[in-house]
Amino acid sequence: MNAFTKFSLSLLTASTLVACGGDKPADVPKTDATAPQAGEGKSLVIATEANYPPFNNMTADGKIVGFDVDVINAVCAEIKANCDIVAQDWDGLLPGLLTNKYDAVIAGMSITPERQAQVDFSEPYFSNTIVWLSKTDGSFDPSNIKNLVLGSQRSTTGADYITQKYDGKDGNRVQLYDTYTNSYLDLKAGRNHAVMAEKVSAMDWLKQNGDGFGLVGDEIDNNDNLGIAVRKGDALKADFDKALATLKANGRLAELEKQHFGDTAKPAVVEPADTVKAEESATAEPAKSE
């Protein structure tokens, strides 16, 4: 069609609209009231650590399993997305997300101000408490921590807690590990005196390695909420929030907690301030050693 013909048709169309009432808005086609979700119909890649049972772990045949895996699968079903779960070491999780290696991270990751400066988080899908894991022979006393080696996994809220409170003080040294599993192995081998860990993780380890070890002292509620991490401004956050709200409302999230954690999911807790006060008021005793 040449330019003159196009111009003539345009004039004809405009004249017809005026004759029929051109100042009246054209009818807008009806649309579905429900807007499509950002993840609907998409294939998403979700990263997890795969070394933090019972939240995420890898079986002998290479399958990634755990609470985090079941939660994200349920979320993906809610938003009608096809999700592929991949393993990534802990320290590389957020860098990989920020370089578009995957779309989201679910790895028992705590929502902290430092991480929120880099990424967005969904609403919490689980709340943790932290505990001391040690020998039960009385060699470790949480009210009198002196001249001890204390372990935890690096870049966790437990690690932050003991580093700020004990490292380099009263003869104590904090040893941080790439995984909780390695911190537990050193505890069992006598290379550290106690490990500060999330209660669910510690209880899971005790199921297989409980002889002579246990939770010592009070649990500490440090407002440790876990969320799904996405890149800043990603519309997936809203989709994940909506899906998690549905899973909470219909009881599915509670079912998954019971399936993976049993009765340890909602423990009685002691506020951090109470714990600090108790420790500061404790009388000094000779340092304990193995």
CATH-defined fold name of the largest domain: D-Maltodextrin-Binding Protein, domain 2
Give the structural class: alpha/beta
Tell me the name of the CATH homologous superfamily of the largest domain.
Periplasmic binding protein-like II
Give the helix proportion (percent range): 25-40%
Give the mean pLDDT: 83
- Proper CATH architecture of the largest domain: 3-Layer(aba) Sandwich
- The ordered string of helix (H) and strand (E) elements is HEEEEHEHEHEEEHEHEHEEHHH
What's the shape? globular
Structural domain count? 2
Task: Give an overview of the whole structure.
Helix content is 36%, strand content 23%. The strands form four sheets. Strands 10-9-11-8-12 form a five-stranded mixed beta sheet, sandwiched between helices. It has a three-stranded parallel beta sheet with strand order 5-1-6. It is α/β, with parallel strands linked by helices. The chain is globular. It has two domains: 43-125 and 227-261, Periplasmic binding protein-like II (D-Maltodextrin-Binding Protein, domain 2); 129-223, Periplasmic binding protein-like II (D-Maltodextrin-Binding Protein, domain 2). It has ten helices and 13 strands. It has helices spanning 3-19, 67-78, 93-98, 113-116, 157-166, 180-189, 199-209, 236-249, 252-261, 272-281, and strands spanning 43-48, 51-52, 56-58, 64-65, 82-87, 104-105, 119-121, 126-135, 149-153, 173-177, 194-198, 213-226, 229-231. Residues 1-35 and 265-290 have low confidence and may be disordered. Strand 3 (56-58) and strand 4 form a beta hairpin.
